[in-house]
């Protein structure tokens, strides 16, 4: 029966028609994407058109933190956005927020309300559509049922969602032709503690802006027109990797449905070893689904830019244009949600787990991070002569120092039970945090430290600028090819890639908020440290001299040398060298979690106002709780599937072999050998399941959370790894028609 379900699913996948979706039309032809980009977004431009000028100016001042929003302004904005949204079919509104679950949450409220009219004729009820400023500014979801790490108890249920005015509202399609107005929000407790991912991200953005402006004012000349910067933004471009598989086959894999990854499965003879999937032709069905995703995202103002096949079969990637970090995170979460919904329409299932299939590449969320002024200038642009660009050099060494001092914090930011399966494998950076700069920038820093002339060393070039060179490809008909400032090092967890850093270790299913918050905080603290060093060097003088600047630069260039590594981060030699350099090698999540409580990190986070002490402890507890729950769910799912699907099939196979042996007698040599091969595997697997059941019962009796985390390997993961080996042996022996679930060859190539 289960075999037939597999076969029917495979047949259905090949016979399924491709879903057709038409691009928006104008004058009988398709619209340019730029013409309908953001059409479902209540943009600042739209708001400006719908509000009186004085009220709009009041709103802008509030959004920039210069004025508290008054009732008149909030009511005016609420009225304008309600009319705009209802014109687009909206019947409900929701405060859309990011609890500490790695996903988003929403509670829908109707615009419909009842107005009571009292007169001499009696009490009359009139239905009206209304949306007040107070409803726009905040709502009150139940805070007790979201992760709080012990900061809240069940009877302390009050929490608040508060509109994030820096992130535009938008409408999304609902059922039956209706839509819902989404209000991006933060989520806090009754006492004002951050219960979400966004609040701390916004705090870290303010901290880094304040520190960066102080550094610019210190190092810039008073006559420099570019010294009047009022705000610094962290920018972010998030490359989202994911798998797309047939939804019917997914439905037959209980492990995928419950845990997000396959707990069993053998690699097929062909998977990714031919390296033919990466950037290959996208399957028609997948291209159709991703194109529909892009259409929806463009309407929502998400600047999707690229799409392509990733390394593993059935693996793909989408990436946007860079944006302000908090909006980029919102848009990435939207991308994941839209991918999920649209894949469903195309009879596909999107998998965001970091390692859904053992033995092939997992998925990451590469976060390309930089700093920009309020007039759009990238502070990490080295220009053609980085050795003469004081501003670039100071921000560069500040980031080097941040990663050097707080590497453990950055490792913590990407730690999870699911990402443990990916980090350090062939497609992901290892657990040792280091920075790749490339030969050019390394030479720039070395020459400054050693007080010498820069050495130019690229082949076939007499003399070059560090900002890049041309490549002669020896084909006269082709244009000149420009060489980037640096090569790319995809083994590095934190690599400089021209005018930004690529934080490659972030997991594909996690929100980018937490790791980017920690990165922002570390850089803000490092900038503050450099500002103090410059002030001390300047002393009582009015201005910094060039020698003052060089003295501070040389100090931090020398101090941060251990964190710089341009070689192969996957090599065993690097592990040994990193140990000599004194770099942390936190190989698993439990080792990384403790970093949040280390005084050097915790004190920095509290000093900069990113977290309070109670928020830090709650975050630590939430990380531990989620880790334990993830592994316990996997263990219980594993036991259930083996006992109800795998072992019954093995018993049936052994029974059929025994019947043939009994019938054929001495002629049954092949069947006898198959039975002899199968029996010890089945017996061992059955014993392992008995032990796993006992272990789960023992594990559940452990009350202390820290002890539970320490016991996961002893009671859960080790035995699962051993048992999986036995199940995979059975998959290679048991007849295909008996095997109870879709195999890797079907999931990855159907």
UniProtKB/TrEMBL annotation:
- Sequence ranges assigned to domain GS catalytic in this UniProt record: 197-646
- InterPro entries xref list: Gln-synt_C, Gln_synt_N, Gln_synth/guanido_kin_cat_dom, Gln_synth_cat_dom, Gln_synth_gly_rich_site, GS_Type-3, GSIII_N
Q: Which domain of life is it from?
A: Eukaryota
Against SMART domains, the record matches this protein to: Gln-synt_C
Where does the record place the GS beta-grasp domain?
A: 91-192
GO biological process assignments: glutamine biosynthetic process
- What is a GO molecular function of this protein? glutamine synthetase activity
A Pfam cross-reference name? Gln-synt_C-ter
Which protein family is named in the record? Belongs to the glutamine synthetase family.
The identity of this protein, by name, is Uncharacterized protein
Question: What organism, scientifically named, is this protein from?
Answer: Diversispora epigaea
């Amino acid at each position: 029966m289960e075999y037939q379900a597999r076969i029917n699913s495979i047949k259905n996948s090949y016979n399924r028609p491709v879903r057709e979706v038409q691009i928006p039309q104008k004058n009988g032809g398709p619209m340019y994407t730029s013409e309908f980009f953001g059409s479902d977004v209540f943009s600042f431009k739209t708001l400006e058109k719908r509000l009186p000028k004085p009220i709009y100016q009041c709103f802008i001042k509030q959004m920039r933190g210069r004025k508290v929003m008054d009732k008149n302004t909030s009511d005016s904005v609420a009225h304008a956005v309600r009319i705009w949204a209802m014109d687009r079919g909206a019947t409900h509104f929701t405060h859309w927020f990011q609890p500490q679950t790695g996903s988003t949450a929403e509670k829908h409220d109707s615009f419909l309300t009842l107005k009571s009219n009292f007169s001499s004729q009696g009490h009359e009820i009139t239905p009206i559509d209304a949306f007040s400023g107070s409803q726009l500014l905040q709502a009150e979801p139940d805070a007790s049922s979201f992760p709080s790490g012990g900061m809240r108890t069940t009877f302390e249920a009050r929490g608040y969602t508060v509109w994030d005015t820096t992130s535009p509202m938008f409408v999304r399609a609902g059922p039956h032709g209706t839509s819902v107005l989404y209000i991006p929000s933060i989520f806090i407790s009754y006492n004002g503690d951050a219960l979400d991912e966004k609040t701390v991200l916004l705090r870290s953005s303010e901290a880094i802006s304040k520190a960066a402006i102080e550094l610019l004012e210190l190092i810039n000349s008073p006559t420099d027109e570019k010294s009047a910067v009022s705000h610094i933004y962290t920018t972010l471009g998030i490359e989202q990797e994911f798998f797309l598989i047939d939804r019917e086959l997914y439905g037959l894999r209980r492990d995928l449905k419950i845990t997000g990854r396959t707990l069993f499965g053998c690699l097929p003879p062909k998977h990714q070893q031919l390296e033919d999937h990466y950037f290959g032709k996208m399957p028609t069905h997948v291209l159709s689904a991703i194109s529909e995703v892009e259409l929806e995202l463009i309407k929502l103002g998400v600047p999707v830019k690229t799409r392509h096949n990733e390394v593993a079969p059935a693996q793909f990637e989408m990436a946007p244009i860079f944006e302000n970090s908090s909006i980029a995170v919102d848009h990435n979460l939207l991308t994941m949600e839209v991918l999920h919904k649209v894949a469903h329409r195309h009879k596909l299932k999107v998998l965001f787990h970091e390692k859904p299939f053992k033995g092939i590449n997992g998925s990451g969320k590469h976060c390309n991070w930089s700093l920009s002024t309020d007039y759009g200038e990238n502070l990490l642009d080295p220009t053609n002569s980085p050795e003469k660009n004081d501003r670039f050099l100071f921000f560069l060494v500040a980031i080097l120092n941040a990663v050097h001092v707080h590497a453990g914090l950055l490792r913590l930011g990407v730690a999870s039970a699911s990402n443990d399966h990916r980090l350090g494998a062939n497609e992901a950076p290892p657990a040792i945090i280091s920075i790749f700069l490339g030969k050019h920038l390394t030479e720039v820093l070395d020459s400054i430290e050693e007080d010498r002339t820069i050495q130019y060393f690229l082949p076939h070039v007499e003399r070059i600028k560090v900002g890049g060179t041309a490549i002669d490809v020896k084909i006269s008909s082709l244009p000149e090819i420009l060489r980037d400032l640096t090569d790319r090092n995809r083994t590095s967890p934190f690599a400089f890639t021209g005018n930004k850093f690529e934080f490659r270790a972030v997991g594909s299913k996690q929100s980018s908020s937490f790791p980017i918050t920690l990165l922002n905080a570390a850089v803000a603290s490092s900038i503050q440290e450099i500002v103090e060093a410059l002030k001390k060097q300047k002393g009582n003088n009015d201005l910094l001299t060039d020698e003052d600047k060089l003295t501070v630069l040389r100090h931090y260039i020398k101090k941060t040398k251990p964190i710089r590594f341009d070689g192969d981060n996957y090599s065993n030699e690097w592990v040994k060298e990193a140990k000599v350099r004194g770099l942390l090698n936190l190989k698993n999540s439990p080792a990384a979690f403790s970093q949040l409580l280390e005084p050097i990190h915790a004190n920095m986070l509290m000093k900069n106002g990113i977290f309070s002490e109670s928020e830090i402890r709650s975050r630590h507890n939430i990380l531990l709780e989620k880790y334990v729950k993830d592994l316990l769910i996997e263990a219980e799912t594993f036991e259930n599937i083996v006992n109800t699907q795998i072992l019954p099939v093995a018993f049936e196979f052994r029974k059929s072999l025994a019947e043939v042996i009994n019938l054929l007698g001495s002629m049954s040599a092949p069947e006898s050998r198959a039975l002899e091969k199968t029996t010890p595997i089945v017996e061992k697997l059955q014993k392992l399941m008995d032990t796993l059941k006992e272990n789960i019962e023992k594990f559940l009796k452990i009350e202390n959370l820290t002890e539970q985390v320490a016991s996961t390997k002893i009671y859960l993961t080790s035995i699962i790894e051993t048992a999986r080996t036995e199940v995979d042996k059975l998959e290679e022996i048991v007849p295909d028609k008996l095997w109870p679930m879709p195999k890797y060859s079907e999931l990855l190539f159907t």
